[in-house]
Amino acid sequence: MLDIQKIRKDFPILERQVNGKPLIYFDNAATSQTPQQVIDCIVNYYSHYNANIHRGVHTLSQEATDAYEEARIKIQQHFNAAKPYEMILTSGTTDSINMVANGFTSLLKKNDEIIVSALEHHSNIVPWQMLCERTGAILRVIPMFENGQLDMESYTSLLTEKTKIVFCNHVSNALGVINPIEFIIEKAHEVGAAVLIDGAQASPHIKADVQALNVDFYVASAHKICGPTGVGVLYGKEEWLLKLPPYRGGGEMIDQVTFEKTTYAGLPHKFEAGTPNICGVIAFGAALDYMNGIGFEKIAAYEEELLQYATKKLLAIGDVTIYGTGKKTAVISFNINNIHPYDIGTIVDKLGIAVRTGHHCAQPIMDFYKIPGTVRASFSFYNTKEEIDVFIEAIKKAKMMLS
Amino acid sequence: MTIQEIQAEIVDEFSMFDDWMQRYEYMIDLGKSLPLIDESLKKDENLIKGCQSKVWVHGEMQDGKLVFTADSDAIITKGIIAILIRAFSNQKPSAIIEANTNFIDEIGLKEHLSPTRANGLVSMIKQLKLYAVAYQTQLN
């Protein structure tokens, strides 16, 4: 059992008030809040050993480099990658995806095929469309069912020897549905396609084991896992990272430079041009320490309890449609009657509650349901049933005012 | 009435309300009661894009005055539109160009006109002013 009251004390932001009411933060799928341990890590870095890494011989630089590389190992161990240098540190999930999509430019030819799922965030669609424009490759889409689950039969029939890369999120950001990535990876490999899984939404709830998954690329952002914004990771199997050309030119990523020719550094530096977000990476490591200290199994079990509790109470209000059912993380994406989600979001904000409203950067999903958007409440391990009770009352009030 | 007088009148009306709930309930009522735009004008070229709620705006000259109609698919947004239309519509373009929207602050709805709010209202006001500038140019 988690001691939620003790955990809540780790998050100073949970003390604050919004519009005169205690903050109830249910927008965890957008970004998670930051525990004091991570804030302290950031303060400590800038107070004691802020320096550029991988170049200075002086003590500060050495300390910063050591802390940065230790963080890389923490991230490697968290995702159970085989080698630390398979963890490329990036500015976030979007950056990581673009790195892979860009790298595939030289590996694709006209009429090759790329498969993405119908459940994708815009950042997961656009880089592949751009890749198609550059290479003449064709984008195929795994369709979804009304319940938000992907159609695996259609997926299997899309796979051919032309398929070069399959891209899917582990968990849908708009609906919270957990996708059958084990099956997706296995089937893609049967036709020799590489698989990139976006773990941004899964990572706060599910500890992915990249070796057990046998996935080629897996990406995530620190800020969804109690870490800072502007930091993320691209896991790539060594063989794939060696195949991909560097994404950005600059310092850190080179071996030898003359005006005639430059040779690139080895992994991971080939992909880490310029001064990285040193403090952010170190704080990412601290965030993973914090989360692992609590334990992902306990976190998942508690969040499931919150999800079930909130779902039951929400449906009891009546006229509620929940989008996405089945195996889910602690996310409820819903609408009430024909009330615009923006209106509901506005009223509940007045009551101190933070939820996301809109299309969640996933317009194709909203088009599929023929709705302008949804209200999305997403829970974290520091939320409570009491907060859900307040939220339910707020939704009832909004429904009454807006109906 | 001038724009300023209408705005003062709206501020006066809102001063009756004690709390945000009453203000919002009033706005929601305004949003529900008014047919704001002709269905045929709810077309893509009148739509302000990139917002969570859809906002349509149309303006045309009638007897030397600029008349606006607008609408939204979100009811609170529609309520604020009703207030804005009341303040700005049926006025000379020059007056619309000069007018400000400070009264929205005074009636406690400031947050809806924040440039970072994705409700389309800021773009709508910009659009109202653009209409005014365009018709003023014609008049000159």
Describe the fold and architecture.
The complex is a heterodimer of chains A (403) and B (140). With 403 residues, chain A is α/β, with parallel strands linked by helices. Chain A has 2 domains: 4-26 and 295-398, Alpha-Beta Complex (Aspartate Aminotransferase, domain 1); 39-293, Aspartate Aminotransferase, domain 2 (3-Layer(aba) Sandwich). In chain A, 40% of the residues lie in helices and 17% in strands. Chain A is built from 14 helices and 17 strands. Chain A has helices spanning 4-9, 36-49, 59-79, 93-103, 126-135, 152-158, 181-190, 210-213, 238-243, 278-294, 296-317, 341-350, 363-369, 385-402, and strands spanning 17-18, 21-22, 24-25, 87-90, 113-117, 138-142, 163-169, 194-198, 217-221, 232-236, 254-257, 262-264, 320-323, 331-336, 353-354, 356-358, 374-378. In chain A, the strands form 5 sheets. A 7-stranded mixed sheet of chain A has the order 4-10-9-8-7-5-6, sandwiched between helices. A 4-stranded antiparallel sheet of chain A has the order 13-14-17-16, with helices on one face. In chain A, helix 11 runs parallel beside helix 14 (385-402). The longest helix of chain A is centred in the C-terminal third of the chain and has 22 residues, at 296-317. In chain A, 49% of the residues are buried. By secondary structure, chain B is of the alpha+beta class. Chain B has a single domain (3-139), classed as Sufe protein. Chain: A (Alpha-Beta Complex), CATH 3.90.1010. Chain B contains 6 helices and 3 strands. Chain B has helices at 3-14, 20-33, 75-88, 93-98, 102-106, 121-139, and strands at 47-48, 55-62, 65-72. A 3-stranded antiparallel sheet of chain B has the order 1-2-3. In chain B, helix 1 (3-14) packs across helix 3 and helix 2 packs across helix 3 (75-88). Chain B is globular and about 45 Å long. In chain B, 38% of the residues are buried. The model of chain B has no long low-confidence stretch (mean pLDDT 87). The chains are: A alpha/beta (403), B alpha+beta (140). The A-B interface holds A 19, 339-343, 346-347, 350, 357-359, 372-373, 401-402 and B 20-21, 24-25, 28, 52-54, 73-77, 118-119.
